[in-house]
Design a protein that fits this description.
CATH class of the largest domain: Alpha Beta
Strand content: 25-35%
Structural class: alpha+beta
Helix content: 25-40%
Distance between the termini: 38 Å
Number of strands: 13
Largest sheet: 7 strands, mixed
Bound molecules: adenosine-5'-diphosphate, magnesium ion
Strand order of the largest sheet: 8-10-7-11-9-12-13
Number of domains: 2
CATH architecture of the largest domain: Alpha-Beta Complex
Order of helices and strands: HEEEHEHEEEHHHEHEHHEHEEE
Radius of gyration: 21 Å
CATH superfamily of the largest domain: PurM-like C-terminal domain
Length: 327
């Protein structure tokens, strides 16, 4: 590409980003200089998290750019949610194979809508040419000492998850296998795969309450195992208690394979642990947010994770979660 044209078009792209999201008062200087200048409240610590989505690995190159804009930010906000952090700022590194304005504009629409919903300001980034890849870094605040960690689960705690599990994995399965599915199901499942809703409000409510928390990106078993290992405990899960959408419940009746539900990945729900005394409070929280929060098992001393079926038999998964670079 002609160097001057490239620079002119890149400036145009940057123009898209400069006023994409509403301004926050704690941003002294946003997009346009060599760095952003940001004010962290004196009584808070900064929670920072970054995630990269690569075309062909994390999404199909023909996915709707608007959905991609949403998801690139949503998966990062999900990490802040799992820390109990209040989202504030975001930076965006975009690598684009070509300068396709309609594509960028649709991507920005999806990104900006979610950022605006959560009061997050885009304060900087980088734009380069190359194979399509999107890196988003989010910054949030949490009162010192109140961040939710993976390491605090206690023997006897209840284990909970938000929302439903396995929808995104079933959506991927349908996309890949191309089998006949009810149109209503496919619309719902696609939305769950492409437009995950970060559980920020749940994370905030769990501060000073949950003993541990994680967001489920690689599948329940893999992510809960992170909690168990960090906390030095084990757990029992009751499969029949896992929260399922109608679509996933129907597919389970046909195939009786729990793998997609517990190891499918891309759920972006929260998994957390709490002492038994907080059961009533969790019920109230679920009612207040209009979101299912389901008790699925308990923490025990014996290391490892055991899943039981309705008839009391142990179920052993073939694989425990989506792993990059796994052989
Ligand atoms: P520099 O060459 O000093 O790194 P750039 O030309 O890369 O600056 O970027 C100019 C300004 O535009 C910077 O403030 C940068 O943060 C912002 N910017 C560039 N790309 C993006 C993007 N994809 N999203 C948000 N801001 C961006
Ligand atoms: Mg730069």
């Amino acid at each position: 590409m002609n160097k001057h044209r490239e620079i002119a078009e890149f400036n145009l792209i940057k123009h898209y980003f400069s006023a994409l999201t509403p301004a926050r008062r704690d941003v002294q200087l946003g997009i346009g200089d060599d760095a952003a200048l940001l004010k962290v409240p004196h009584d808070r610590v900064l929670a920072v998290s970054i995630d990269t989505l690569v075309s062909g690995v994390h999404f199909y190159s023909d996915v709707s750019p608007e959905s991609l804009g949403h998801k690139a930010l949503a998966v990062n906000l999900s990490d802040l949610a799992a820390m109990g952090a209040q989202p504030a700022w975001v930076t965006l590194a975009l690598t684009l194979p070509e300068i396709d304005e309609p594509w960028v504009s649709a991507f920005c629409r999806g990104f900006a809508k979610l950022a605006t919903d959560y009061g997050v300001q885009l304060v900087g980034g980088d734009t380069t040419l190359g194979p399509l890849s999107i890196t988003v870094q989010v910054h949030g605040f949490v009162p010192s000492g109140e961040g939710l960690r993976r390491s605090g689960a206690q023997v006897g705690d209840d284990i909970y998850v938000t929302g439903c599990l396995g929808d995104a994995a079933l959506a991927l399965h349908h996309i890949e296998s191309g089998g006949a599915v009810d149109v209503l199901d496919i619309a719902y499942l696609k939305r769950r795969l492409e437009r995950p809703e970060p559980r920020v409000e749940v994370g905030l409510a769990l501060r000073q309450m949950a003993t541990s928390a994680i967001d489920i990106s690689d599948g329940l078993l893999a992510d809960l195992t992170h909690i168990l290992q960090s906390s030095g405990v084990g757990a029992c899960l009751e499969l029949e208690k896992l929260p399922l959408s109608r679509s996933v419940a129907d597919s389970l009746r046909k195939e009786d394979d729990w793998t997609r539900v517990v190891a499918g990945g891309d759920d972006y729900e929260l998994c957390f642990t709490l002492p038994e005394v907080d059961r009533i409070q969790i019920g109230e929280l679920a009612n207040r947010l209009g979101l299912p929060i389901t008790r699925i098992g308990y923490i025990e001393e014996k290391a490892g994770l055991r899943c039981f079926k309705r008839d009391g038999t142990l179920w052993v998964p073939e694989r425990s979660g989506y792993q990059h670079f796994a052989s």
